[in-house]
Design goal:
four-stranded parallel beta sheet; 6 helices; 4 strands; globular
């Protein structure tokens, strides 16, 4: 159901303002944000990432920055941003990684926890991949983090393709 809903959101609403969300905004969402910017640079998109962790300004972990560079993405200057209702309202599309993100997003949705308001613009990034969720690499070994980055790259490529065709 989430996959179908996500695909419908992209194909019918043609969003241009993308908000990429994960728990801490230090690994998955900033990687996806910068990757999508690279993939969509010939198009007119605004892309911002943020997270639910309440402390803004945190850098990406050094080991993750190094691993991201191996995948062509520089997170050296990234600092985390905290999600807000203003950011959710600004976005045409809110891209999430997992069930935990979905649950944490509910208070930011117009109309509360129901399916009204902002819920119609939520897209599960895993809808374009083979995994049920995109695992949080924070605190994981480099092998698991590498797998997460491969998953993100594949999912972002498929999302970018659907956004531009």
């Amino acid at each position: 159901m989430a996959r179908y809903s996500s695909l419908q959101t992209i194909r019918h609403h043609r969003p241009r303002k993308l908000l990429v969300v994960c728990h801490g905004n230090i690994c998955r969402s900033p990687f996806a944000e910068r990757l999508l910017r690279d993939q969509l640079k010939k198009e007119t998109f605004e892309i911002i990432s943020c997270g639910f962790h309440p402390r803004p300004g945190r850098p990406s972990p050094d080991d993750f920055v190094l691993l991201a560079r191996l995948h062509g993405i520089d997170l050296g200057d990234h600092r985390s941003r905290v999600i807000s209702q203003e950011l959710v309202r600004w976005a045409d599309c809110v891209i999430i990684m997992d069930d935990k993100n979905w649950e944490s997003l509910q208070p930011f949705m117009a109309g509360g926890a129901g399916m009204a308001g902002e819920a119609g613009k939520v897209v599960w990034l895993d809808s374009w991949g083979l995994h049920p969720e995109i695992a949080d690499p924070y605190g994981q070994n480099s092998s698991r983090a590498h797998e997460t980055l491969k998953t993100l790259k594949n999912a972002c490529a498929a999302l970018a393709n659907d956004l531009t065709t």
